[in-house]
Structures are given as C-alpha cells and as structure tokens.
C-alpha cells in the first residue's frame, strides 16, 4: 500500500492521539497492578500477626491493612447503622460503634458487622444485640471506611436526633463532629466470630476491580490502533485502473 505524503498537522494530530491513548492504557495497567496488590494485602491481613493499634496508627508504612489488637470500651449507646447493605442476597445494615482505646484521647469507629433487616419485605431494621459495657479487647483489620456512593442532602447526621442513627454513608469527619470528639480516619473491621450474631465478610474498599482496569486499558490501546489505522486509510494512494484498449 502506497502512502501519500501527509501534512504536518495530520502527523502531529496522529502522534498526539496515539501518545495520549497509549499513556492512558499504560496508566490503567498500572492501576490494575496496584489494585491487585491491594487485594492480596487485604486477603492476607486477617492471617497477619497482630500489632497494637497505636503502633499501626503511628507507622503508616506498616501496611495498607494492618491486623491490630486494641483494648478499651465500646460506646454502645451511640450506634450508627449504614443502610442498604447486601450480604448473601440479604438486605440489611452495617453496625458501627465508637470505641475509646484505654489511655487514648482519640476514638476509633468499629464495624461490628452486618445484620439483615427483618419482616416479610425486609424493610424493618434489625434489633441490635447487646453491646458489652465493660473493657474489652478487640482484634481486626484497620482499614479505610467504605467508600460512599452518591452523596445527596449534605450531612445527614444533623437531622438525626435518636439512636441508633441511620446513615447512607460513613464519614469519620462527620461522625467526629456529631460525637464532639476526635475519630481516627480509618475504621476497625472486627475479626469473624462464629458465635456472633454479626456477619463479617470483609472486602477491600476499591472502587474498581483489576479486571475492569485491564478492560479500560484494552479500550485505550484499541483507540491508539484505530487512530493509526485511520491515518493510513486516509493517506493511502488508490491505484487507478487502466482503461481497456479496444
């Protein structure tokens, strides 16, 4: 296939387009690799050695999901219910309780786990099991709070006056303002307990899976290929057929 000489502008546009599409594809590949690393670290966290919560907070380089132990008191009178959660095809809530470590001035929000809604149409909120009032020792994964979906209506806590408070997303900053105390930016995902009423099946808080990043990478690389293909098609020289001589 013969190619006619392209204009400088056509070459620049093609090179720029290919460079941008390839850069976006490579970025998506890097994001997929990072997300895969996060997933591996999260799944290994439950079996990792326990460290004090204070150590994990003071050393952010210890890992994305440190497995921690902490002793203190749960504030069972002030509970937050994260609504519209699904586990094992059941609709329910995640139960969050403030926890004050012994000797500390900053609390941490503890995710006790999932409770399914009640009633034939699964719209009635579950009854909360009793929360220990004394000093307890907790173990779990210190992780970022669940990412919120679409936030509408501002801070919902200012409209809640009774406990437990029903929320549609977890914001440690808003909860700290609501409790008038300081709260750590991450939450504690308690270790599974077969004797507990709570279902504790934890997932890493990632907004996009590695496979989806790779799908986007393939899409961007395809755009780069199509850009080159269009450039060649637009600049090819068509062969003229000779007229037949009678």
What's the helix and strand layout?
Elements (H helix, E strand, L loop, with lengths): L7 H38 L5 E2 H6 L8 E8 L5 E8 L2 E12 L5 E10 L18 E9 L21 E3 L4 H8 L3 E8 L19 H25 L12
Parallel strand pairs: 1-2, 3-7, 5-8
Antiparallel strand pairs: 2-4, 2-6, 3-4, 4-5, 6-8
Helix pairs in contact: 1-4
Number of helices: 4
Largest sheet composition: 5 strands, mixed, barrel
- The SS-based structural class is alpha/beta
Q: State the helical fraction.
A: 25-40%
Give the overall pLDDT as a whole number: 85
Radius of gyration of CA atoms, rounded to a whole number: 27 Å
The 3D shape can be described as elongated
Give the N-terminus to C-terminus distance in angstroms: 30 Å
Oligomer: single chain
In the predicted model, the low-confidence regions spanning at least 5 consecutive residues are none
Taking strands numbered 1, 2, ... along the chain, how are they ordered across the largest sheet? 2-4-5-8-6
Give structural notes.
With 246 residues, this protein is of the alpha/beta class. Helices cover 31% and strands 24% of the residues. The chain is built from four helices and eight strands. The chain has helices spanning 8-45, 53-58, 172-179, 210-234; strands spanning 51-52, 67-74, 80-87, 90-101, 107-116, 135-143, 165-167, 183-190. A five-stranded mixed β-barrel has the order 2-4-5-8-6. β3 and β4 (90-101) form a beta hairpin. It is elongated. The mean pLDDT is 85.
């Amino acid at each position: 296939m013969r190619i006619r000489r392209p204009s400088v502008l056509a070459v620049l546009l093609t090179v720029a387009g290919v460079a941008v599409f390839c850069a976006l594809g490579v970025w998506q590949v890097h994001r997929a690799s990072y997300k895969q690393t996060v997933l591996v670290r999260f799944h290994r966290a439950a079996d990792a050695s326990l460290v004090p919560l204070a150590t994990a907070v003071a050393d952010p380089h210890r890992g994305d999901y440190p497995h921690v132990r902490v002793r203190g008191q749960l504030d069972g009178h002030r509970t937050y219910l994260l609504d519209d959660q699904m586990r094992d095809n059941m609709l329910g809530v995640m139960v969050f309780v403030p926890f004050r470590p012994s000797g500390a001035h900053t609390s941490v929000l503890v995710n006790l786990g999932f409770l399914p809604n009640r009633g034939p149409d699964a719209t009635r909120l579950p009854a909360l099991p009793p929360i220990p009032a004394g000093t307890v020792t907790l173990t779990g994964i210190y992780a970022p709070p669940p990412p919120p979906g679409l936030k509408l209506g501002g801070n919902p806590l200012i409209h809640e006056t009774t406990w437990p408070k029903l929320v549609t997303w977890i914001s440690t900053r808003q909860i700290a303002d609501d409790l008038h105390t300081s709260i750590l930016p991450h939450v504690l995902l308690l270790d599974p307990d077969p004797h507990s009423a709570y279902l504790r099946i934890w997932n890493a808080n990632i907004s996009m899976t590695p496979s989806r990043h790779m799908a986007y990478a393939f899409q961007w690389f395809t755009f780069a290929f199509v850009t080159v293909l269009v450039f060649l098609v637009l600049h090819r020289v068509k062969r003229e057929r000779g007229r037949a001589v009678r």
